[in-house]
Specification:
eight-stranded mixed sheet, 8 helices, 8 strands, binds S-adenosylmethionine
Length: 250
């Protein structure tokens, strides 16, 4: 468990193709189900704290779920990822055909300082070796007062069991080393990384599965049901998201 120098495998995203949107025999189906609670929360925060049409950077956008949703809601979106094939899928699913999808590395964003009103990094921070360095880079490209939305996983024995082991045991095509415990981030650590990058975490909220939406068929077959649901919860012991604000100059 902790201290074990296992490496995360980010090459798996290159092979997802259309399965980003269609697979139910893979943890990506859980990601899509979680999005049904993540997106309304993000949109409500964006509507409260930013102007319609603001510029948003979606880092590690993968198949473009959030980028495309934000574009549908009138935002000017750029989505970046290291996986070219994922970006192609994201582009194909962009009904607005307005999102700028670009290959870029989160550690070295090809944008000037203070370029964006908001930045999103969903299910991303636990995929990089040095989350503090990427958070610094995120802060650099955000305007003062800009918003940083994140989603990641807490690091503790329960999250190891639920998010890593239960998926490996019960979801059919869970790729090896899709998640590695030492890359998970405690909420307090994330708050400190943000503070050191001149951002303040304003809110954090947990996400958990609705137990009654998990049925025996899923457990037996390893195929996620279309009816699998998640809900928001105050506890951040497992999966959590939140919003930080970049400090304004004095
Ligand atoms: C778990 S997926 C999340 C995708 C998307 N944010 C979502 O929630 O559906 C993580 C993504 O991060 C990308 N990624 C990993 N390291 C990266 C880096 N250094 N720069 C940009 N993207 C990266 C992977 O290619 C992958 O698409």
């Amino acid at each position: 468990m902790e201290g074990h120098a296992e490496e995360i495998d980010n090459s798996i995203y290159e092979n997802y193709g259309e399965r980003w949107y269609t697979a139910f025999d893979d943890p990506v189906a859980l990601l899509r189900a979680e999005n049904r609670v993540k997106f309304p929360w993000i949109l409500s925060q964006l509507m409260s704290y930013s102007q319609p049409g603001s510029r948003i950077l979606d880092v590690g956008c993968g198949g473009g779920f959030l980028s495309n949703e934000l574009a549908m809601n009138g935002y000017e979106v750029t989505g970046i990822d290291l996986s070219a094939s994922s970006l192609n899928v994201a582009r194909a699913h962009d009904k607005t055909q307005s999102v700028k999808y670009e290959i870029a590395d989160a550690f070295n964003l090809p944008y000037p300082d203070a370029s964006f009103d908001a930045l999103t990094a969903m299910d991303f921070l636990e995929h990089v070796e040095n989350p503090e360095a990427v958070i610094k880079e995120f802060s650099r490209v955000l305007k003062p007062g800009g918003l940083f939305f994140f989603h990641t996983f807490n690091r503790n024995p329960l999250s190891w069991l639920v998010i890593i082991k239960l998926l490996e045991w019960f979801v059919k095509n869970t790729p090896k080393n899709m998640h590695v415990l030492r890359f998970f981030i405690k909420p307090q650590e994330l708050k400190i990384f943000c503070q050191r990058a001149e951002m303040e975490v304003m809110s954090m909220i947990g996400i958990r599965p609705v137990i009654s939406s998990i049925n025996w068929e899923m457990i037996k077959t390893g195929i996620i049901s279309k009816d699998m649901r998640f809900t928001l919860t105050q506890g951040t012991l497992l999966s959590y998201m939140g919003m930080a604000v970049k400090k304004r100059a004095l």
